[in-house]
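Fold this: Polysaccharide Lyase Family 14 protein
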Amino acid sequence: MHAFTTLLIFVAFAAMSVSVSAAPLQRRTCRPHSQIAAASSSTHASSTSHVTTATSSAQATSSKVSNAPSSSKATSTEAATSTKAATSTKAATSTKAASTKVASITASSSATPSAVGAASSSTLLKELFPVPHSAFWTTSSASPDALPLNDATFGVTNLLKALPLNYVNAPDGKYSLKSFYPQGSYTFTHDIIGGVSFYGTGPKSVSLANAKEATLSYSVYFEDGFDFNLGGKLPGFFGGDDFQTAVSCSGGRRDDGCFSTRFMWRTDGAGELYTYLPPDFAENKAVCNVPPFSTCNDVYGASVGRGIFTFKSGTRTLIGQRVRLNDVGQANGELELFVEGKSMFTVKGLVFRDTDGARIQGLQMQSFFGGSESKWASPKDQSAYFSDFSVAITETF
């Protein structure tokens, strides 16, 4: 009898389980001459040191229904944390549903890389292409398929003509795109301007038109003694419903039809991702919770993972990002940050788009001091040098 009773208890406990269903998408109530090569890339490896789960703080009302399946702050003067309850600005006749989205943030390393030293060609290519891919282009001389670092390779468009592009040998000898920041310069709307500003669609032979996921990597050399002041912007991906809509997604202009994922430096060279994501989706609050420090606001971009790595002057730092577009109607987009080819964090459960036609459009090639106030200005004449630009398509639609 005792054995029989024990067996019954065992069966009862074995039958107990907890099932958590995915939360539905919430709507807040508010792409020259290149060789396409098969991947010679490294495995997408990263040692996970700890995993935290961030829960979106805002409960939102969905105004769109889709049957697509689901998959994976130092105070800033232009950013203030917001808990704004969102009201949908788009009319829809679909059923409305409200819930709180749980998003996952994986911090892949507790280390804080600062710079890239001398690297063999194979090592450098692995760092530039940290994810297996099907097609790519690169300006890195480490690759036998390297394209020239010039306007044609970038597919330059929307160039700010007051800042012509200047390709030079950097102080470390690497051929680079030079970004000169005169003393007193910040943003592009004042008497003294500096940096670079254009959009790049990339080589026509490697089109992003069918890319569901892509990576962008490059190296940046801040001259010796560079004064980072309060911070400044660095190039990243941009995308949206179409090119013209997508180029508008920065400078405080936010829209569900566009997104951007630039890098940024902060005081003392603290590095981060600086994002503009569709504002009407509460799931995107997940970027507000990335350690060691993140902050969001309702006007400007989100400071994501500030200080998880550090830019150093007088040496070259290699940075990268991976953007995976969500399925329409599902919060399964992903954003990942790499430093020297090593994954630093991944934010899952994001919404980059709410229309089937929205795509990664190319590179938002902007760098400047700012910040929208004069206290962000460059304290002196100084320069940064960009090289090794590399884009890979890692998943297609």
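The two ends are 61 Å apart (CA to CA). Residues 1-23, 28-102, 109-119 have pLDDT under 50 and may be disordered.
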